[in-house]
Write a structure and sequence with these properties.
By secondary structure, this protein is mainly α. It is built from 21 helices and no strands. The protein has one domain: MFS general substrate transporter like domains (Growth Hormone, Chain: A, Up-down Bundle), CATH 1.20.1250.20.
Length: 427
């Protein structure tokens, strides 16, 4: 009799813990950028590029690592990504400890980009966790459990945006990064102790034939979702389904936009309204935490009303929020726009991943890689463009940059209606 360790609840909880630990890297430079810029002055475009660098590896690595999840269940990919993030944070702390502030010049900018990319590897745990959690739970619970996984994990950047300004005041910048390094090491150890793969993958690891493992996992443990082929095959199968690319485009808007704004909002609040770093961090936390909590609620709503209907409603809220931010010239109006964006993006993110196993059930891991990886790439692309708009328009550019989100949300609404119409025809 094969010995199986773990259960769906433990599998979901451990994946959420691992994602929470790694995803905090979204806030790596957002709050600290103002301090770094004081001693290493760069243009708004280069500042936006620095802020977004963790999203580069955090997005692109989701593709191969999510597909790898289809071959072994996710535990190994999770640990590799978290260890890479630890190495990046160790390097960042070392540089800060040795050179900040007196000897930190613009010559260190390329090194900061590299360390940001390394730290951002932890962000890629999202697509690994999506696959890992999906294999533990039946289709009927996907929206709720994936909403909990992603929503609670998404809390990390907001919480760090709230904590970092106070930590910087009391500890200084280098010791703040040391505390973050310790957090990563402890969290990775917890995942190593608790993280488990779903039944099918454990049976495979114990030497069971894949077909027999699938039969036993289905009959004895009621597992519903199974991978088809290896990592390369999973990516190929999902890439050939046009719905994968529709979901990617929508996710670029919602989740890529979420990462971008979590990183950009500290600069927006401190530069546009001249707020202190603590106040800018609190407002960024408001946006990020609210969006994360709404992702949990959005998953539950998606289970009841369906992913497409939830997307139509939430993308409408997102578009409204972006319009408010575009025209806002008063603090209260910007707060309202920020809240609408958070609610709309959070619910949309959950709805998209309700649709992933529904629309491409034959390659959940590969689809999660394409959608989560390329979609999250928006977190890398958008901040430099918003910085560039500031370079062109000056102070007014901070508001005009939100015009990008009006366009993105409108296009995503059209794509959602395409998905919905195709589903109606098929039905």
């Amino acid at each position: 009799m094969a010995k199986i360790r773990g259960n769906p609840d433990l599998g979901g909880m451990s994946a959420t813990i691992g994602f929470f630990i790694g995803f905090a890297a979204v806030s790596l430079f957002g709050i600290t950028a103002t301090k770094i810029k004081e001693v290493m002055p760069v243009s708004p475009f280069l500042l936006g590029l620095l802020i977004s660098t963790p999203a580069l590896s955090g997005s692109l690595l989701r593709i191969p690592f999510a597909a790898w999840t289809d071959t072994n269940g996710g535990r190994k990919p999770f640990l590799v990504l978290l260890i890479l993030s630890i190495l990046g944070m160790l390097g960042l702390y070392t540089v800060m400890n040795q050179f900040y502030p007196a000897r930190l010049t613009t010559h260190f900018y390329p090194l900061f980009l590299f360390l940001g990319v390394l730290c951002g590897c932890g962000i890629a745990t999202f697509s690994v966790g999506i696959g890992q959690v999906s294999y533990w739970f039946p289709q009927s619970k996907q929206g709720t459990v994936l909403g909990l996984f992603a929503g609670l994990g998404n809390l990390a950047p907001g919480m760090f945006a709230l904590i970092l300004p106070f930590a910087m005041k009391s500890l200084g910048l280098s010791l703040t990064y040391l505390a973050w390094l310790i957090f990563l090491v402890v969290g990775t150890t917890i995942y190593w102790l608790l993280g488990r793969n779903a039944w099918y993958f454990q049976l495979i690891e114990q030497g069971m034939n894949p077909e027999e493992a699938k039969r036993q996992a289905r009959e004895q443990y009621h597992q519903e979702n199974f991978p088809k082929g290896n990592a390369k095959e999973s990516l190929r199968i999902s890439a050939q389904n046009w719905k994968t690319w529709v979901l990617f485009a929508i996710y670029f808007t919602t989740f890529g936009g979420f990462i971008a704004l979590t990183a950009w909002f500290p600069t927006y609040w401190s530069s546009f309204y001249k707020l202190a770093i603590v106040e800018a961090g609190m407002l960024t936390a408001l946006y990020s935490i609210l969006a994360s909590l709404m992702r949990v609620i959005g998953g539950q709503i998606s289970d009841v009303y369906g992913g497409e209907r939830t997307l139509i409603f939430s993308l409408g809220l997102m578009a409204a929020g972006a319009i408010v931010m575009f025209v806002a010239d008063a603090f209260a109006l910007s707060i309202m726009g920020c809240v609408l964006l958070a609610i709309g993006m959070g619910m949309s993110n959950a709805a998209v991943f309700k649709l992933v196993p529904q629309e491409v059930p034959e390659a959940v891991g590969g689809t999660a890689g394409w959608v989560g990886g390329l979609g999250a790439f928006g977190g890398f692309v958008i901040p430099p463009f918003m910085g560039y708009i500031v370079s062109i328009f000056g102070q007014e550019g901070y508001g005009k940059g939100f015009g990008l989100f009006v366009i993105f949300a409108s296009v995503s609404l059209v794509l959602t209606f395409v998905l919905k119409s195709q589903r109606r025809i098929k039905g």
